[in-house]
Amino acid sequence: MVEHAILGQQTFTVWCNSDGRIQSQPTSDSVFEDLLEKDQLKETPLDELVAEAIEQGKNEPNDDILDMFETLHERLVRAQGMVADEIARRRR
């Protein structure tokens, strides 16, 4: 009950590791460390999240989902460019 009460009051953000794994992260460092020690912070690879988003939207009518997929595509292209730029910078 205590754990549930504490987590209920927490604000979570999302963290992207450099290898593309996404993880929720509480704003409290002590709660983060506690959850990490208990192995309660699941990491999910970015490509798996994208695949899940596509799967969830497969049966939606185009009028409802096409704009969202286009926005997702634009963001992924922008992210890919940022990663390519960082790789090039580090190789120089």
Explain this structure to me?
A 3-stranded antiparallel beta sheet has the order 1-2-3. 63% of the residues lie in helices and 15% in strands. The model has no long low-confidence stretch (mean pLDDT 86). It has helices spanning 2-8, 29-37, 46-57, 62-91; strands at residues 12-16, 21-26, 43-45. Strand 1 and strand 2 (21-26) form a beta hairpin. It is of the alpha+beta class. The chain starts with a helix and ends with a helix. It has 4 helices and 3 strands; from the N terminus they run H-E-E-H-E-H-H.
Summary?
With 92 residues, the protein is of the alpha+beta class. The protein is 63% helix and 15% strand. It starts with a helix and ends with a helix.
Quickly list its features:
3-stranded antiparallel β-sheet; 3 strands; alpha+beta; 4 helices; 92 residues; flat
Strands of the biggest beta sheet: in what spatial order? 1-2-3
Kindly, what is the distance between the CA atoms of the first and last residues, rounded to a whole number of angstroms?
Answer: 53 Å
Which oligomeric form is depicted? Answer: single chain
- Shape, per Cα inertia axes: flat
Helix content: 55-70%
Rg = 17 Å
Average pLDDT over all residues: 86
SS class: alpha+beta
Count up the helices.
4
Q: Provide the β-strand percentage band.
A: 15-25%
Total strands: the figure is 3
Q: Biggest β-sheet, characterized?
A: 3 strands, antiparallel
Low-confidence stretches: none
The helix/strand series, from N terminus to C terminus, equals HEEHEHH
